[in-house]
Amino acid sequence: MTLLSSIPQQIGSGACILLLLLGFASCQPNISQEKRQVKVLGYGSVTTYPDYAEISVEASFTKDRMKVAVQEVQSVTNEVMTLAKRYTKAPEDVRVSSISANKAYDYVNGREKFLGYNSSQSVTIKISDLKQLEAFMEELLKTRINSIQRLQYSHTKADSLRREASALALADATKAADQLCKATNVTRGEVLEISNYQNLENSNQGQLAEQNVNVGLYGKGFGGDGFKITPELLRFKGTCHVTFALE
């Protein structure tokens, strides 16, 4: 009643009905346009060998006096840095953490027992010539380090390899759309939406989403005489979600 009363009296009842129908139609979603889309998923990957490795090691000692514990750690850190200088190309290839010192305790029969003062420090070394990695690791194990915390391979052109994988994923998605269009006798139109992000399959990793171009290290071999390392292939993967209009 309110809508009709707002229409001028000189407009006939037939015109009123027509205006109401037009107003109702304008509020409805364009169902046909929504249906004329094709959504596809494309995959791309680039495989290559790594061209550098990063090794993180730690020196840690517990002594009766804090000064002695710190001195022991500094001595081992200096050993590692001296060794690293022979295998690295630039000063920034060797990174040293701040030294830490704390009281150390153990629990014996439910009671806290003071063990002494613990000091620790870690060093990360970048080896750009992987042919020298085995020799470096053998010498590294002769030092008084307590642990090798991390051995990771990567590639200096990782960013461009990720972009290449994304481009291949887009090409794959376009090809998939063309195949679907051909099978259904329609024509692919312009891109309406494109994304190379998706939710992580493993929600325990504490992240909601990441760019779906990942580096996967498929193996590190240890064997032979002494300490031998065999870097395996790296695979940069891309996933692309694309929505095309249909003409």
Question: Could you explain the architecture of this structure?
Answer:
By secondary structure, this protein is α+β, with helices and mostly antiparallel strands. The protein has helices at 2-5, 13-26, 31-35, 66-85, 133-140, 158-184, and strands at 37-48, 52-63, 94-96, 100-108, 111-127, 147-154, 188-195, 197-199, 209-211, 213-217, 220-223, 228-231, 234-246. The strands form 4 sheets. Strands 2, 3, 4, 5 and 6 form a 5-stranded antiparallel beta sheet that branches. The relative contact order is 0.21. The model is unreliable at 1-11, 13-22 and 199-227 (pLDDT under 50).
Low-confidence blocks of residues: 1-11, 13-22, 199-227
| Strand composition percent | 35-45%
Q: Distance between the terminal alpha carbons, to the nearest Å?
A: 42 Å
| Secondary-structure element string | HHHEEHEEEHEHEEEEEEE
Q: How is the main sheet built?
A: 5 strands, antiparallel
Number of helix segments? 6
Radius of gyration of CA atoms, rounded to a whole number: 32 Å
Number of strands: 13
Secondary structure: helix percent: 25-40%
What structural category do the secondary elements indicate?
Answer: alpha+beta
| Overall shape | elongated
Instruction: Determine the mean pLDDT.
Output: 79
